[in-house]
Design a protein that fits this description.
The complex is a heterotrimer. By secondary structure, chain B is mostly helical. Chain B is 74% helix and 0% strand. Chain B starts with a helix and ends in an 11-residue tail after the last helix. The chains are: A alpha/beta, B mainly alpha, C mainly alpha.
Chain lengths: 257, 336, 289
């Protein structure tokens, strides 16, 4: 396996606070990697630094060997790095289908004049786009609700739609920000199932998550952070037995969850 | 089947509307109404220009300022440099677009209320300049003696309001066709995405800044063209043509018509242009009524006339269809 | 030639107009902070305030100070009613509220143009004479504006910091929903905030009336100043309104003295363009703002 993403010496300071300090890790192509840590450990900051939402104070983010530090988020997407949002960030006033179409259409499309009936390959383009959108909706099991306005979807479906929009950009690396936050056990199991299926199709996954049991059963490789530093890294068993991880989580009621 | 027949219906409506619009000067006589029809078309071009800016989620109160740039440029290019109308017309659009391009790079970083406040100030700034830069703008007295438009291959100039009407209609139809094509293209989808959630748009590979900048430049280009048209139609321009209230007017055309379709700004221009004339009998109370109507609109029809019409048409259609649809599987239509 | 007395004169004029800007911006920023409303009608409450003072003093023979106080009360109550009828039904729809405020602005101007006509009026100044020292000449009527503004500001500060109402206002400004959960009568707070803002504008109108003549279109220019000040100080920030108002007043006064009136008029725009581009949330906003 080859290295898809590698992060080295990553640091981020806010004022006098070190949110992330000297963090290094890498993600093998084809794997499912979990990034865990107690509340305020700097997980979300790491996530934002990797996506390009925030700029690191020091360190490097490499994707497929290329340093992407200077690239804004949308250009990282075009390289194959997609993300989902912690809260349900959707095009809430548009239909489910339109949400996915926007994800698909972002990267390419015919020229403006193709919109004029009879000119260009507009119809072929549109039909192809719709076919791909429905394929995706099939994949995340949302075809039946394709014409419903996104804001009217149940919560679990909204989260699946968020994943579908990210998938529409054909990512090599899919980064999920707390994908099961606020979900009941049935929805959580479904999400785990969906993530595995995405992975089986060859997409590498990075999950930032609070829910320990979810991460332990889903991920093959886990990175634990606390106070912006890496505590431990390895298989779920190794990480779970690590005394530093146990200490960091002590008193954090979410360990049991 | 249904999609196809409704597409034919739409095509018929559009052709009928164009033919009807083309015939207006043959039926409407008298300068009063022709004047209003001419102004409607000019305002529609301007309102369409604002529509594309609104489509990316930026509410601009500086549209009249960009109109002013076009109007003064066109007037001076024909008066001082004796350029033919068509060249001045296009250059005035390009100039407004160039200003938008330069300013847009910085001001489009502002969002929501901050963009509104800034464009409000920008409009006042352009207004002040038009009052004070006497050498360029003629100051408070404005510019008089602007020539009627001339066209290549057309003898004479478009002196009468009926002749001008065809020019304005042609510009309006070209602008409309261009925007209709643009809105249907992938770029139209990009604008919708950026308006609805800039955060998500950016996370799926759209460059929000670029999308907003292109829309702002195109919208300002149309504002410049509209300014040029109005200068050569009225033959006289002065700072009071380009106040903050004019900007509000273009925004109102979009809101009253409904800013989420191209029909909206057009309907808005059709309603708002003659409104002062209808209120003329109540001249004293005209301003008060205008404000009152605006407040009532916001209270009862906030999504505009188009959406209200759309909703009532849909309600009627649903009501007609209801008996036949009973028991039909809802998911049947979803299969492609 | 810049001398001590030139600088003193710049400060005198700057403080006077600055005090006026602060009063205008304070109400404007309060209304935005609580209702999320860009109140385009704010200048009209200022104009109404001036006209009420005019009628109370010239026609009912009331003394100037009682007239200003009564005018603030009347316009404040009118503001509360306006909030209830025009803005309360639109809660949460920012663009609709903004457009309604524009409608309100046009409507108030329209009515007043019918009722009062479009001519200018003037009010005799309650005080006369000039305070003079070796380097300073401060007309008493301007000193009065500054003094009354300080009194109003002190009262406003006490109200916000040390009253139950102030506590409610701060809670709603921070988070309307959370305030509702705490049992704060949010709807009443909205109305009171709007009324307070309108009253502050009316006081500004009453204070400025003896210095400049009044007419029904005077609100537009005042509104523009309020806009500039709140952009400088940060939308919704009360300390920002005070600092921004004084800053604009003094800077304008300096530019008017040194480079002439036109440059001073342009200055406001250049300032806010600079501030918006450099720090869109205003000069006093915190880094995370």
């Amino acid at each position: 396996m080859s290295e898809l993403l590698s992060v080295s010496g990553l640091s981020k300071r806010f004022g006098g606070l070190n949110a992330v300090s000297d963090l290094s890790f890498s993600i093998e192509s084809g794997s499912i990697v979990g990034l865990i840590g107690p509340n305020g450990a700097g997980k979300t900051t790491v996530f934002n630094l990797v996506c390009g939402q925030q700029q690191p104070t020091a360190g490097e983010v490499r994707f497929e060997g290329r340093v992407v530090n200077a690239l804004p988020p949308f250009e990282r997407v075009r390289l194959g790095m997609a993300r989902t949002f912690q809260s349900t960030v959707l095009y809430t006033d548009s239909t489910v289908l339109e949400n996915v179409l926007r994800g698909l259409a972002a990267r390419s499309g015919p020229a403006v004049w193709s919109g004029v009936p009879g000119l260009g390959r507009w119809r072929a383009y549109r039909d192809d786009l719709h076919r791909r959108a429905f394929d995706l909706l099939d994949f995340v099991d949302l075809r039946d609700v394709h014409d419903i306005t996104a804001r009217n979807l149940p919560y679990g479906h909204q989260r699946s739609l968020g994943v579908a929009i990210a998938l529409a950009t054909s990512p090599k690396l899919l980064m999920l920000d707390e994908p099961v936050a606020g979900m009941n056990p049935a929805e959580t199991a479904q999400m785990a199932q969906l993530i595995r299926r995405i992975n089986q199709q060859g997409t590498t996954i990075l999950v930032v998550e609070h829910d320990m049991s979810f991460v332990m059963q889903l991920c093959g490789h886990i990175i634990a952070v606390s106070n912006g530093r890496k505590l431990a890294e390895g298989t779920p068993d190794q990480v779970q037995r690590d005394p530093q991880v146990i200490a960091a989580y002590l008193g954090d009621e979410d360990v049991a969850a | 089947m249904r999609a196809r027949s409704s597409r034919y219906a739409l095509a018929i409506v559009i052709v009928a509307a164009v033919v009807g619009a083309w015939l207006v000067p043959s039926f409407v006589h008298g300068n009063f109404w022709l004047h209003i029809f001419d102004m409607m078309l000019i305002n529609a071009v301007l309102a369409l220009g604002l529509n594309i800016i609104l489509k990316t989620g930026q509410v601009s109160l500086a549209h009249a300022g960009f109109m002013a740039i076009g109007a003064y440029a066109s007037a001076q290019l024909t008066l001082k440099l004796a350029l033919p109308f068509l060249a001045a017309f296009l250059l005035s659009g390009i100039l407004a677009a160039a200003v938008a391009l330069l300013l847009g790079r910085v001001i489009l970083r502002l969002k929501g209320v901050y963009f509104i406040l800034f464009t409000f100030a920008l409009n006042e700034f352009i207004f002040l300049v038009s009052k004070d830069a006497v050498a360029l703008t003629g100051g408070n007295t404005g510019l008089v003696g602007i020539k009627a438009p001339t066209l290549p291959f057309v003898a004479g100039s478009l002196q009468t309001k009926a002749q001008f009407y065809y020019l304005a209609l042609a510009v309006f139809l070209l602008a409309l066709a261009f925007l209709a094509a643009l809105y249907r293209s992938p770029f139209g989808r990009a604008m919708d995405a950026v308006r609805e959630s800039e955060q998500l748009a950016e996370a799926t590979g759209y460059d929000p800044m670029r999308v907003k900048l292109i829309a702002f430049v195109i919208g300002s280009f149309l504002a410049g063209l509209g300014g040029s048209l109005s200068a050569h139609f009225l033959r006289y321009i002065a700072p009071f043509n380009f106040t903050f209230w004019e900007s509000v007017n273009f925004l109102l055309m979009n809101i009253i018509g409904g800013s989420f379709s191209l029909a909206g700004p057009i309907i808005g221009a059709l309603i708002l242009t003659p409104l002062p004339e209808f209120l003329r009998d109540y001249l004293l109370w005209q301003q008060f009524l205008y404000g009152l109507i605006l407040m009532l609109f916001m209270r009862f029809l906030p999504d505009g006339v188009t959406s209200a019409i759309g909703m009532s048409v849909r309600a009627v259609v649903d009501w007609v269809r209801t008996p036949r649809r009973k028991g039909a599987p809802v998911a049947a239509e979803t299969q492609p | 030639m810049i001398t001590t007395s030139t600088i003193a004169q710049i400060l005198v004029n700057g403080l006077t107009s600055g005090a006026f800007y602060v009063l205008m911006a304070l109400g404007f920023t309060l209304i935005f902070g609580i209702l999320r409303l860009v109140n385009f009608a704010h200048g009209e409450f200022y104009m109404l305030g001036a006209f009420v003072v005019y009628h109370l003093t010239t026609q009912l023979g009331l003394d100037y100070f009682s007239a200003v106080a009564l005018s603030a009360l009347v316009i404040g109550l009118a503001g509360m009613m306006v909030e209830k009828t025009v803005f309360a039904p639109l809660r949460g729809r920012e663009l609709s509220m903004l457009m309604s405020a524009l409608g309100l602005q046009i409507a108030i101007q329209g009515v007043m143009a019918v009722v009062e006509g479009v001519d200018g009026f003037s009010i005799p100044s309650p005080v006369s004479g000039v305070y003079r020292s070796s380097w300073l000449a401060f007309p008493y009527e301007r000193l009065l504006v500054v003094g009354l503004t300080i009194v109003v500001l002190a009262g406003f500060y006490l109200l916000i910091k040390h009253s139950t109402l102030g506590k409610s206002l701060r809670a709603v400004a921070q988070d309307g929903e959370a305030a509702l959960m705490q049992g704060i009568p949010v709807n009443r707070v909205y109305a009171i905030a709007f009324g307070l803002g309108a009253a502050l504008a009316a006081i500004a109108g009453g204070l400025i009336a003896p210095i400049f003549s009044l007419h029904v279109y005077m609100g537009q220019a005042a509104l523009l100043k309020a806009f500039i000040v709140v952009i400088l100080g940060g939308l919704g920030s009360i300390p920002g309104a005070v600092v921004g108002g004084l800053l604009l007043g003094v800077a304008e006064s300096a530019f008017a003295t040194l480079f002439g009136g036109l440059t001073a008029e342009m200055l406001g725009f250049l300032l806010i363009m600079g501030v918006l581009l450099w720090k869109p949330t205003g000069i006093l906003a915190r880094a995370d703002g």
